[in-house]
Specification:
about 400 residues, Rossmann fold, 9-stranded mixed beta sheet
Length: about 400
């Protein structure tokens, strides 16, 4: 590290050690990791510890440093001194800028070194892009803010409907149920209906603008997909004499924990710009690994990147968790409990004991109260599934158990 940069880091530490206000100024701009590893980074860590308690002042910082390491205490007294120049803001920005430069240089150097190996170029590019996205997050928060008046005056939700009165643009839904319970057929009905502009879950099968649909089906083979679509298409074709804008990703094995394959899926979504994207079944999209949240992290990160870059709504299909702990209705997805908190909508297909029809059980409380999802489903005469709205369900059965 050159002498000028060292002085700027020591100056930033000096300013941050003087008062709570200066500490908050410095560490609102730069991070502990932006400082040189060793005594400088350890001192920064000591200051942020005190800052969290609202106790920053010079004697307290010196005491915290001495507790950590007597040698570092001597270094602190000799080097973190008032003689270093400029303001807290200037010094912190200089530290941050140099740290960003270093991270960028390390990323590009690694990428260039990998080009001299036999690794595939797409894998190298995916690794570099992933590292650059982390670098970019260091440049600025990227987070916008709004004031009170803006929040109060925010208009009602006017995002386009993907499924009218049920699912809007850029939302997430997970459908669960037991094996062989009809999930795949329901998914086919919903997706082809969206592509042909028919709300197949509404009892009156209302029409809307056709949507672009992309399906990443890694559960069913091509014949199974065809058979499911044939159960739905003839009636929809009679209703809407249009060619559906629906496509399938021609792949049966995917691992979204692999940065290359994750990047491929995100890139395909950006190329096709779907209004609705289906992904499933959940357990085949990424391995769970040793940590319970591994698959959730990989899949949710991919889905949220797709939503951020395309505005697409995403429908996922999952197997139910067989009554896992903290499961409200025995229908939340198998695996991480994080699935219960993440989507806007989560429904489980539960066989109603009295009627044999399907109750759409909410295992994730709705994030919006302006929706008219059906309460249940029955086998239909023209489509595989026909929606049963709340008033009819209550009149017929009077309960949702």
């Amino acid at each position: 590290m050159n002498e000028v940069l060292e002085q700027l880091q020591l100056a930033a530490l000096y300013h941050a050690s003087t008062t709570q206000e200066n500490a908050e100024t410095v560490f609102s701009i730069c991070d502990v990791a932006d400082f040189e590893p060793g005594y400088q980074q350890d001192t920064a860590s000591a200051i942020t510890t005190l800052m969290a308690r609202g106790q920053v002042e010079q004697m307290a910082v010196a005491d915290e440093v001495s507790k950590a390491n007597p040698s570092m205490y001597k270094w602190f007294l000799l080097n973190v001194k008032e003689e270093y120049y400029s303001t807290p803001t200037y010094c912190a920005n200089a530290v941050r800028q140099e740290a960003n430069r270093r991270r960028m240089q390390e990323t590009l150097t690694r990428g260039l070194a990998e080009l001299d190996t036999k690794r595939p170029v797409d894998e190298i590019m995916a690794n570099v892009l992933e590292a650059l996205s982390v670098n970019e997050a260091h440049l600025s928060s990227g987070l916008s803010t709004v004031d009170f008046d803006t929040i109060i005056d925010t208009p009602d939700d006017v995002r386009p409907w993907i499924v009218p009165d049920m699912l809007r643009t850029n939302e997430r839904m997970i459908l669960t149920g037991p094996e062989g319970g009809g999930k795949s057929v329901l998914v086919a009905q919903m997706c082809l209906g969206a592509a042909m502009g028919v709300n197949t879950l509404h009892p009156e099968l209302t029409h809307h603008d056709p949507m672009r649909v992309l399906m990443l089906d890694v559960e069913n083979d091509r014949l199974q997909v065809r058979n499911n679509m044939r159960k739905v298409y003839p009636y929809l074709r009679e209703q809407r004499h249009i060619d559906p804008s629906i496509t399938w990703v021609d792949i049966k094995d995917i691992d979204l924990s692999n940065p290359v394959e994750q990047q491929q899926v995100v890139k395909l979504a950006k190329e096709t710009q779907p209004d609705l994207m289906y992904m499933g079944s959940l357990y085949r999209l990424a391995p769970e690994g040793d940590k319970v949240d591994t698959a959730f992290t990989s899949v949710s990160r991919t889905v949220d990147r797709i939503r951020a870059e395309t505005g697409s709504s995403v429908l996922l299909e999952a197997h139910a968790g067989h009554g896992l702990q903290n499961d409200r209705n025995g229908m939340r997805p198998y695996g991480s409990s994080m699935w219960m908190r993440w989507p806007e909508f989560g429904f489980g297909m539960v066989k109603h004991r009295a009627s044999g029809n399907i109750l759409l059980k909410n295992w994730r409380g709705h994030r919006s109260d302006d929706r008219l999802w059906p309460t249940g489903l029955r086998r239909g005469s023209v489509l595989p599934w026909q929606g049963i709205m709340a008033d009819e369900w209550e009149a017929l059965y009077g309960d949702t158990d």
